[in-house]
Design goal:
This protein is α/β, with parallel strands linked by helices. The chain has two domains: about 10-90 and about 245-400, Alkaline Phosphatase, subunit A (3-Layer(aba) Sandwich); about 100-240, 2-Layer Sandwich (Alpha-Beta Plaits), CATH 3.30.70. The chain contains 14 helices and 13 strands. The chain has helices spanning about 40-45, 50-55, 75-80, 95-100, 135-150, 205-225, 250, 265-270, 285-295, 305-310, 315-325, 330-335, 380-385, 395-400; strands at about 20-25, 60-65, 110-120, 125, 155-165, 165-175, 235-240, 255-260, 275, 300-305, 340-345, 360-365, 390. The strands form two sheets. An eight-stranded mixed beta sheet has the order 9-8-10-1-11-12-2-13. Helix 10 packs antiparallel against helix 11. The two termini are about 20 Å apart.
């Protein structure tokens, strides 16, 4: 008797060329913790009348992007929202950033993120983000590095692309390159950058080769940037060897589009085959791209970074204001009449912690088939919603079902 082939959900149930449009609004880092003086999270403290009205006609719940207790990075968090198990489909942030700036990665390329940073005379990190320089200021430094760095290993090519503000993408191509390296970013100030090293105890030869190439690059860069007053150091993180992913359209029958201000989020969408509609310089322009291209795609991903940025700054009031700004877009998105409107985040970033956290993320799914349970969008209301607390990768199954795009399972 032949072994039984198990179905893959939701892929095996997808009805192709049938069903409604889906709009996913990702409020990056939306989840929070109560402030010390009022007991409300940032989302609960924010004045969000439009989101609250939407919640009153929606199914609510919470989700764990990866697993309970696991703090997700932005890459795994978004892959989960797109229906990809982040434990199976793993990719480093470097590859996402490279794709996000439009770089055409080849199989075997090794990509990583660089932070332009400020280093003092004793070699200690003063500012991990070099004061968040303007794009033009940072691009001038990137050009100096492109023109000045010469690698000892002539078989290795490097490509340097500016991403946004202090963020830069570095791609190595050629030879055997591995990704099992620890970051050189110490994640704190007052200490030196970490030395490039492969993970122990069993580093693979390809990753040891990457260590040698990276040390050579950073040594060269240090000489070139020694006279820069602010952007005089580099911190490496997010190593990723690129191999490719199964496409969003092949899996779900959806032609997808991404509308995002920051390149990294365009990159994670491109990784699964979504199309980039433009490179907006403001969030308002990103919303405008959704409106302009809405009829052309089955699935729209709209990304909003500000809640996460303010949460990482430890700015509770700033995160509240960012969420209130997003609330103003909801009527415009509803006017497009998506069959399914999903509002959630890729992870929590409580301002009281100042970093990503493992806390479950609020989730809202609006459609004609919703089961409303509350009249507000916040952690307290979502915890009592009919969706319960689920794994983030199941949000796509629910969105497809609400859009009439999944068949019945079994007879």
């Amino acid at each position: 008797m032949a072994p039984m082939t198990l179905p893959t959900f939701p892929d095996s149930l997808v009805q192709r060329d049938a069903g409604g449009r889906i709009l996913l609004l990702v409020l990056d880092g939306v989840g929070g913790l109560p402030g010390s003086d009022h007991g409300q999270t940032e989302l609960e403290a924010a004045r969000t009348p439009n989101l609250d009205r939407l919640a009153a006609g929606s199914s609510l719940g919470m989700h764990h992007p990866v697993a309970p207790g696991v703090t997700p990075g932005s890459g795994p968090g978004h892959l989960s929202l797109f229906g990809y198990d982040p434990l199976v489909h793993q990719v480093g942030r470097g590859a996402l950033s490279a794709l996000g700036v439009g770089f055409e990665l080849r199989a075997g390329d090794l990509a990583l993120r660089l932070n332009l940073a400020t280093i003092d005379a004793e070699g200690r990190v003063v500012d991990r983000r070099a004061g968040r320089p303007s794009d033009e200021e940072a691009l001038q430094v990137v050009r100096r590095l492109r023109e000045g760095v010469r690698l000892k290993n002539e078989r290795i090519e490097f490509f340097l692309e500016h991403e946004k503000e202090h963020r830069v993408v570095l791609i190595f191509r050629g030879g055997r390159l591995g990704e099992k390296l620890r970051d050189t970013d110490p994640q704190e100030v007052g200490v030196p950058p970490l030395t490039p090293r492969a993970f122990r105890p069993d580093p693979d030869p390809a990753s040891e080769n990457t260590v040698r190439v990276l040390r050579d690059f950073l040594d060269e860069a240090r000489k070139i940037l020694k006279d820069e007053p602010v952007m005089n150091g580099l911190l490496a993180r997010g190593f990723a060897r690129y191999e490719g992913f199964p496409s969003f359209e092949d899996r779900f029958g959806l032609r997808g589009a991404v509308h995002a201000r920051y390149p990294m989020y365009r990159g994670v969408a491109r990784l699964v085959g979504m199309e980039v509609t433009g490179t907006p310089s403001t969030d308002e322009e990103a919303v405008g791209l959704v409106e302009r291209h809405f009829s052309e795609y089955d699935f729209h991903f709209l990304h909003y970074k500000a809640p996460d940025a303010r949460g990482e700054d430890g700015d509770f009031a700033g995160k509240v204001e960012a969420l209130e700004a997003a609330d103003a877009w909801i009527p415009r998105l509803r006017d497009l009449e998506p069959d399914v409107l999903v509002v959630t985040g890729d992870h929590s970033t409580p301002a009281t912690m100042g970093i990503h956290s493992w806390h479950a993320v609020p989730l809202l799914i609006h459609s004609r088939w919703a089961r409303p349970t509350a009249e507000a969008f916040g952690e307290g209301a979502c915890r009592t919603g009919d969706l319960g607390t689920i794994e983030g990768r199941h949000i796509m199954s629910l969105a497809l079902a609400h859009a009439g795009r999944l068949k019945k399972f079994g007879a």
